[in-house]
Amino acid sequence: MTTRVHNPVRYLAGACALVLALLLGAPALAQGVPPAPAPVTAPGAQPAAPAVAPVPWSSLSPDQQRVLGNIAGQWDVLPPQRQQALARGSARWLKMTPQQRQSARMRFRTWQQLPMQRRELLRRRWEQFQALPPDQQREMRESFRRFNSLPATRQRQLRRRWQQASPEERRDMLQQLREPRLRSRVP
């Protein structure tokens, strides 16, 4: 039997990815999907009109209307981005198994219990993750999966090491993680 030797630095990205996992689920739990980022405009310029069309309540399926029933009376005053997000979220909800729905409810309760500052931090990090190119998002998700597959004691060790590291040490740890991947991409 061969034992695998794990380089602790390699799995520090997993600690970062753990935070991303919260980011991946938490905003979606808040209202179905993460909020749309605000458009960026030059100082003094008029913001561009949103290019998102409103979603008529009547265009939702009866099941979606049932899921979103508690906001039916407010639907027409919601911003179009929010309407679209809720429409997508309700469609996703309807495709979930009962176990997935229960898990989502539990994550949502956890999200609601977070202090507002923590929620805002997680939203900002979610937006940063969403801004990454798809290949980097994939790498982050893979790092999370590797980290998540480690024993709980090892995860705690790595989290503690990351939290106690200085910004320079963290930068060095991340660089060490990137170097093998960069070398493997060079032809």
Molecular structure report:
By secondary structure, this protein is an all-alpha fold. The protein has one domain (about 10-35, about 55-185). Helices cover about 65% and strands about 0% of the residues. It has helices at about 10-30, 60-65, 80-95, 100-115, 115-130, 135-150, 150-165, 165-185. The longest helix has 20 residues, at about 10-30. The two termini are about 35 Å apart. About 15% of the residues are buried.
Task: Write a short abstract of this structure.
With 187 residues, the protein is mostly helical. Helices cover 65% and strands 0% of the residues.
Q: Which structural class matches the secondary elements?
A: mainly alpha
Specify the biggest β-sheet. none
Alpha-carbon distance between the termini? 33 Å
Count of individual beta strands: 0
The helix/strand order is HHHHHHHH
Which strand-content bin applies to the residues? under 5%
The whole-angstrom Rg is 20 Å
From the spread of the alpha carbons, the general shape counts as: elongated
Number of spatially distinct domains: 1
Provide the helix percentage: 55-70%
Total helices: the number is: 8
Low-confidence stretches: 1-37
Q: What's the mean pLDDT score?
A: 78
